[in-house]
Each structure stands twice: as C-alpha cells, then as structure tokens.
C-alpha cells in the first residue's frame, strides 16, 4: 500500500540564504525607481497574486513614487504549485474595473509561467491601457509557456525557495530573507 509522508518543517534559520533582507531591499528599491520612471506622470494599478506576492507588493509599492492603487487576485493550481498540473483556477477576482488603466501584475515567482499566462489573458479581457508583469523571482529554466516579466527582482536556478512571502505548505512566508528549502525534507 502506498504511504504518504507528512510534511516536516525544518527551522528556516538552518536553511542557506539565497538573498538577504538587505539585498532584497536594494533590488526592490531599484525596481520601484525603474517603475516610477517608466510610468512618470501616470497612475498605476498594482495587482498582487495572493498570497505569495503580498510582501513583495507591499515593499515594491512603497518604492514607487507615482500614484498607485492596489488590487488582488487569488488562483489555485491543482496539486502543489511546484508540480504545476497546468490547470489554474481563479478563486478571487479583482474588485475594481481596470479598463483603460495601467496595470502591473505583481507575482512572487515566475516559474512554469502557467499562472501568469492565465492571469495575463484574463486581465487583457478587461482592456487595460497597458499591462506589465513584475516578479520578485524568475526561474527561466522551468518555463513551460512563453512568458517573460517586464520587471524581475532576481533570476534564479531551479531551486525551491521560501521566505519573503514564499511558502512551503503555507509556512515560512514571514521569513525576511529568501532561503533555499532543503530538497531532502520529508513531504517535499
Ligand atoms: P507557475 O504557474 O509559474 O507558478 O509555475 C508560479 C507559482 O508557483 C509557486 N512556486 C514557488 N513557491 N517556492 C515557493 O514558495 C518556490 O521555489 C516556488 N516555485 C514556484 C509560487 O506560488 C508561484 O506563484
Ligand atoms: Mg504564488
């Protein structure tokens, strides 16, 4: 009979750091300046993908000097996000219309690209004036569909990470740096 292993949660302090809190702050600040310059004189709508992008969005928004409003969407991908099955479902839509608005979709990680291609298609149906993508991390080697972000915090190899909003089984989102989750953890 097949057995499943319950996830275990090793302490974050024992995991290798990929990006420190200070490195993240510097990079997010630079992205905020770039976005502010690109949208000078315009208003933007930041649409965060819950829950992973919540922390990145809150820091990025404060590094942006043009007028910005927030909205949030939530999606579920069947099974663990790591092994994307390709099926993405919207579980929370935007609250406010985005027609003729300058929209930036804000995500924690661009991985296979399935989530953001789905969301981009959905958002384009609302006829925004423009639509761009900002992602904290990018794993280009994992891409299954052709999609690129306009603003990328850091490009990383195919390693599972936690912290700065990113989770393993909903844990570790509040870890303030980005760390490598150990591959040999039971349940991973
Ligand atoms: P796509 O559709 O691009 O999915 O495959 C992106 C989503 O996958 C999740 N993801 C991760 N979450 N550490 C995480 O905590 C990771 O290393 C990781 N890689 C992908 C994440 O939810 C992202 O939104
Ligand atoms: Mg996510």
TrEMBL record:
GO terms for molecular function: guanine phosphoribosyltransferase activity; hypoxanthine phosphoribosyltransferase activity; magnesium ion binding; nucleotide binding. Signal peptide: none annotated. It catalyses: GMP + diphosphate = guanine + 5-phospho-alpha-D-ribose 1-diphosphate; IMP + diphosphate = hypoxanthine + 5-phospho-alpha-D-ribose 1-diphosphate. The keyword ATP-binding does not apply. Its EC number is 2.4.2.8. InterPro entries: HGPRT, Hxn_phspho_trans, PRTase-like, PRTase_dom. It comes from the Bacteria. Residues 20-168 form the Phosphoribosyltransferase domain. Pathway: Purine metabolism; IMP biosynthesis via salvage pathway; IMP from hypoxanthine: step 1/1. GO terms for biological process: GMP salvage; guanine salvage; hypoxanthine metabolic process; IMP salvage; purine ribonucleoside salvage. Its main location: cytoplasm. It is an enzyme of class 2 (transferase). GO terms for cellular component: cytosol. It is found in: Cytoplasm. Keywords: Cytoplasm, Glycosyltransferase, Magnesium, Metal-binding, Nucleotide-binding, Purine salvage, Transferase. Its cofactor is Mg(2+). PANTHER family: HYPOXANTHINE PHOSPHORIBOSYLTRANSFERASE, HYPOXANTHINE-GUANINE PHOSPHORIBOSYLTRANSFERASE. Belongs to the purine/pyrimidine phosphoribosyltransferase family. This is Hypoxanthine phosphoribosyltransferase. It comes from Edaphobacter acidisoli.
């Amino acid at each position: 009979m097949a057995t499943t292993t319950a996830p275990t949660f090793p302490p974050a302090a024992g995991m290798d750091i990929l990006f420190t809190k200070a490195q993240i702050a510097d990079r997010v600040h630079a992205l905020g300046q770039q976005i502010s310059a690109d949208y000078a004189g315009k208003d933007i709508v930041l649409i965060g993908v819950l829950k992973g992008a919540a922390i990145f969005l809150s820091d990025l928004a404060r590094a942006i000097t043009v007028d910005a409003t927030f909205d949030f969407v939530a999606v579920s991908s069947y099974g663990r996000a790591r092994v994307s099955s390709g099926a993405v479902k919207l579980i929370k839509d935007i609250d406010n219309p985005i027609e003729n608005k300058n929209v930036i979709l804000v995500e924690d990680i661009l991985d296979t690209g399935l989530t953001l291609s789905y969301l981009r298609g959905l958002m384009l149906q609302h006829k925004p004036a423009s639509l761009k993508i900002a992602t904290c991390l990018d794993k280009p080697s994992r891409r299954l569909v052709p999609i690129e972000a306009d603003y990328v915090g850091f490009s990383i190899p195919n390693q599972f990470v936690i912290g700065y909003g990113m989770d393993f089984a909903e844990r570790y989102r509040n870890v303030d740096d980005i760390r490598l989750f150990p591959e040999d953890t039971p349940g991973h």
